[in-house]
Design brief:
Layout lengths: L10 H12 L6 E4 L9 H16 L3 E6 L9 H14 L6 E3 L4 H13 L3 E4 L3 H8 L16 H12 L9 E4 L14 E5 L13 E3 L1 H12 L3 E5 L6 H11 L6 E5 L2 E3 L6 H9 L14 H7 L3 H11 L6 E3 L1 H15 L2 E2 L1 E2 L2 E6 L7 E7 L9 E7 L1 E5 L19 E4 L4 E9 L5 E8 L17 E2 L2 E2 L3 E9 L25 E10 L10 E4 L3 E5 L8 E7 L8
Parallel strand pairs: 1-2, 2-3, 8-9, 10-11, 12-25, 14-20, 18-21, 23-27
Antiparallel strand pairs: 4-5, 5-6, 6-7, 13-24, 14-17, 15-16, 17-22, 18-19, 19-20, 23-24, 25-26, 26-27
The chain binds adenosine-5'-triphosphate and magnesium ion (MG).
Adenosine-5'-triphosphate (ATP) binds next to helix 2 and strand 8.
């Protein structure tokens, strides 16, 4: 396995260093706690790298905890996908836990709070509860049910659990402080009635604990020492600490928040990604245009590039928007170092070399990777008829066009100098064939007499090539912030040209047996990978990324 990038120090590691040095803590244990209600996206990759790399740096453990306390939105399909994505990123959890494994424990904690007089059953409707909550500037009011006796609360909570009451009729609330400036602390709900079955616990429960209650208890139960999460939980930290403190744990976990990753042009909301999938705007969660990890994997992004990217953006407390170009440059760096080189023509134009003997072929040996002689060489066939890119020929070229046009000479990469003598067109004036002559003395693409050509073209041999479909992907959204609703809803920001399919592409003959996951740098075109839709009879490639950034434009 490749070496995992070690996160440099950051403010989280500074806190840990300090606590280890002072003896406040002796262990480091973290967890990655996704809710299994969708596929992981590039934002999650940041959390995964931070959680796992932190544990690894300190020789501690990191567990995968599926935060499945909300039974209505979750699915087993997502659980398997989450595991596959973490493994793909190159991390291995010590254990897999489910928040639902702790429902008994969490229930006992609720009973304990009631017994301590720190929780009560409340009969206010949702709307009344909102009125009682107050606002940012005004304190809330105590619920009229707040002073129920411990006995009455225990009795009602047990009857809630036994299924005596309908959904929404009662909740269990922590008794904290309705005048707290932090609204989160104003007697938050900790249990609600929901007559729904759960994918792990079935019909055992009809009351379910709230995330804010389950999360700290799960952390403490697993003996997590550092509960790393994103900034939006900063306000909830006093509540987190309150639960930990009221229940009482020997090794209280500490919550530390870091900034979310926001990438421009990307949607990283599971709810909106689900919409793209459900409405068939994309072909699935792994559509190569999605910001999901499975989409990026299918697009050909190496896991190493994603890890390098997360490492580059660093860990900070300030929210910001990262430029997609940075992720692409990480992808390019990894692929440039490793991807075998080859030639492919995406929009072919036939070239006939009139003075090249009919029926003759020759084999040209070229390197697979200019920086890796150990990767060896490949053989490319040359013959009288070849294909070049349509855009590499013009009848009337503009200034500084160094490719093929009548009278101009170019180099065919690794083969010969050829000069355009004439061309044929169809009845619409479209060029169908270009006629050239070649200079036999320029074999290998070297100048025989010091004369220079400015253009070097990629090409494939018409007699020894493989047909392929190539999917050219571009950004899925035209707006830097796809969630911007000024065009109606976020679908108003879709890029209509995010996928262009070319079905008559020609690959060099040696690529006949390529299979899913193989990656290449096609000369002058970019990086490509073989898609899962590919079969031996119908090769399908995805363009992973172009050679140069297009994000600045
Ligand atoms: P979404 O809004 O897409 O549903 P979420 O935060 O609800 O995301 P979870 O499954 O609850 O998704 O997240 C699991 C972990 O990943 C949490 O610790 C969360 O803070 C972290 N995470 C989610 N999105 C990002 C992001 N954009 N950047 C960094 N961490 C993230
Ligand atoms: Mg969430």
């Amino acid at each position: 396995m490749e070496e995992i990038v070690k996160s440099n120090s950051n403010f989280i590691h500074d806190i840990i260093d300090e606590e280890l040095a002072s003896g406040k803590n002796t262990r480091v244990q973290t967890r990655f706690p996704p809710e299994p209600n969708g596929y992981l996206h590039i934002g999650h990759a940041k959390a995964i790298c931070i959680d796992f790399a932190t544990a690894e740096k300190y020789g501690g453990e990191c567990n995968l905890r599926l935060d499945d306390s909300n039974p209505s939105k979750e699915d087993v399909e997502y659980v398997e996908a989450i595991k596959a994505d973490i493994e793909w990123l190159g991390y291995k959890w010590n254990n897999v836990y489910y928040a639902s494994d702790y429902f008994d424990f969490v229930y006992e904690c609720a009973i304990k709070l009631i017994e301590k007089g720190k929780a009560f059953v409340c009969d206010l409707t949702a709307e009344e509860m909102r009125e009682y909550r107050g606002t940012l500037t005004e304190p809330g009011k105590n619920s009229p049910y707040r002073d129920r006796s411990v006995e009455e609360n225990l009795d009602l909570f047990r009857r809630m659990t036994a299924g005596e009451f309908p959904d929404g009729s009662r909740v269990l609330r922590a008794k904290i402080d309705m005048a707290s400036p932090n609204i989160v602390m104003r007697d938050p709900v900790i249990y609600r009635i929901m007559h729904v079955s759960h994918h792990q616990t079935g019909d055992k429960w009809c009351v379910y604990p709230m995330y804010d209650f389950v999360h700290p208890l799960s952390d403490a139960r697993e003996r997590v020492t550092y509960s790393l999460c994103t900034l939006e939980f900063e306000n909830n930290r006093p509540l987190y600490d309150w639960f930990i403190n009221e229940i009482g744990f020997e090794e209280p976990p500490r919550q530390i928040e870091f900034a979310r990753l926001n990438l421009n042009y990307c949607l990283t909301s599971k709810r909106k990604c689900l919409r793209l999938v459900k409405d068939n705007i994309v072909t699935g969660w792994d559509d190569p245009r999605m910001a999901t990890l499975c989409g990026m994997r299918r697009r050909g992004y190496p896991a190493e590039a994603v890890r390098n990217f997360v490492d580059k953006i660093g860990v900070s407390k300030a929210n910001s928007v990262v430029d997609y170009g940075l992720l692409e440059s990480c992808v390019r760096d990894v692929l440039n170092a490793n991807a075998p080189r080859a030639m492919a023509v995406i929009e072919p134009l036939k070239v006939v070399i009139d003075n090249y003997p009919e029926g003759k072929t020759e084999t040209i040996t070229v390197e697979i990777h200019p920086d890796h002689p150990e990767m060896g060489t490949r053989e490319v066939t040359f013959s009288r008829e070849i294909y070049i890119e349509q855009s590499d020929f013009m009848i009337e070229p503009p200034k500084k066009y160094f490719r093929l046009y009548p009278g101009n000479e170019v180099r065919l990469k690794g083969a010969y100098f050829v000069k355009c003598e004439s061309f044929e067109t169809d009845e619409n004036g479209n060029v169908t064939v270009v006629h050239c002559t070649y200079d036999e003395a320029s074999r290998g693409g070297n100048s025989p007499d010091g004369r220079k050509v400015k253009g070097t073209l990629h090409w494939v041999c018409a007699d020894d090539c493989v047909d392929a479909e190539i999917r050219l992907y571009d950004r899925l959204f035209n707006a830097e912030n796809p969630s911007d609703e000024s065009n109606g809803d976020f679908t108003g920001n879709l890029n209509p040209e995010s996928l262009v399919v070319r079905t008559d592409c020609k690959l060099e003959g040696g690529l006949r047996d390529i299979k899913e996951g193989d990656v290449f740098q096609f000369m002058r075109q970019g990086y490509f990978c073989v898609d899962k839709d590919s079969t031996p009879d119908h090769i399908v490639l995805n363009r992973t990324v172009q050679l140069n950034s297009s994000w600045g434009k």
